[in-house]
Design a protein that fits this description.
about 270 residues; Ribonucleotide Reductase, subunit A; about 0% strand; binds fe (ii) ion
Length: about 270
């Protein structure tokens, strides 16, 4: 499998318009670039968890190459906006403060099917995130990059979902177990990785790391991009990965609750920042 696009040749970099750059959005892009650029470490982890499945291991390597390209594209955009941002240097900084144990033989999700449910959650998050970001971005190059990335992330979801169904035949998981992994992974979006990436990407010289502060700073900006239709799609994708029908009444209720809680969270974060 080769990448569906190339960040150097398929993006019209000449269209870059500095007058349309939103500095708040740029902060989030700087952080996202670091997380994406570290995709190779997740492939190491997946290849360790799925060590007896060389076919899936190759899938994971190809997938990671696409994630790394997301980092390169977002990083190049951030470097274009601000020459003091250097993707390689910021990435080194990020890795020195945050790392993933890639040598684990067993999935942190309890089983390999569980691991694939968690991967589906991550791709649900990223596909909706870049879709929302593409709609929000006024700067034409960033818009184009986010549209390409969002398409990749949706393909990644489908890819892991296909492998999930394959593994579920060997390792059945109850609805409750799938929901537990799914919601657990969603809750982790407030963990160290994104907060530390936001810190490494945006900190002032000599500024110390505080997880709470940088987690809030990141979430306040990132969650604000979402509109109701993005959240409805997120809930549909979560339902599908858990084996629930997205056409049910529960789906409608869950979408409403999710949209309401997101708004409440954004308001809380804005209040804390004011
Ligand atoms: Fe990505
Ligand atoms: Fe992805």
């Amino acid at each position: 499998m080769t990448a569906h696009w190339n960040y150097l040749t398929d993006i019209n970099w000449a269209a870059f318009d500095p007058t349309k750059v939103d500095p708040e959005l740029a902060k989030v892009v700087r952080a996202a670039a670091l997380v994406e650029y570290g995709g190779g470490h997740y492939a190491d982890y997946l290849c360790s968890v799925f060590s007896d499945d060389p076919e899936f291991c190759q899938v994971a390597r190809d997938w990671a190459a696409e994630e790394i390209q997301h980092g390169q594209a977002l990083g190049k955009w951030a470097e274009t906006v601000d020459a003091s941002y250097d993707l390689e240097a910021r990435y080194k900084d990020f890795r020195s403060g945050y790392s993933l144990d890639t040598a684990q033989q067993n999935s942190v999700r309890g089983s390999r099917a569980g691991e694939l449910v968690a991967r589906c959650m991550v791709e649900t998050g990223t596909s909706s995130y870049y879709t929302a970001m593409a709609e929000q971005a006024a700067e034409p190059v960033l818009k184009q990059i986010c549209q390409h990335i969002a398409a990749d992330e949706l393909r990644h979801y489908k890819l892991f979902y296909t492998h999930l169904n394959h593994y579920l035949q060997r390792e059945p998981m109850s609805l409750l177990a799938r929901l537990r992994v799914a919601l657990g992974r969603i809750a982790e979006s407030e963990d160290d990785e994104l907060a530390y990436a936001y810190y490494a990407a945006n900190r002032a010289e000599g500024q110390a790391y505080d997880r709470e502060t940088f987690s809030r700073a990141y979430m306040r900006r990132a969650f604000g991009f979402y509109r109701q239709h993005h959240i409805e799609r997120v809930v549909g994708m979560v339902f599908k990965a858990c084996g629930l029908s997205p056409q049910s009444l529960i789906y409608k209720g869950a979408s409403r609750v999710a949209w309401w809680s997101l708004n409440r969270k954004v308001k809380q974060l804005e209040k804390l920042a004011a």
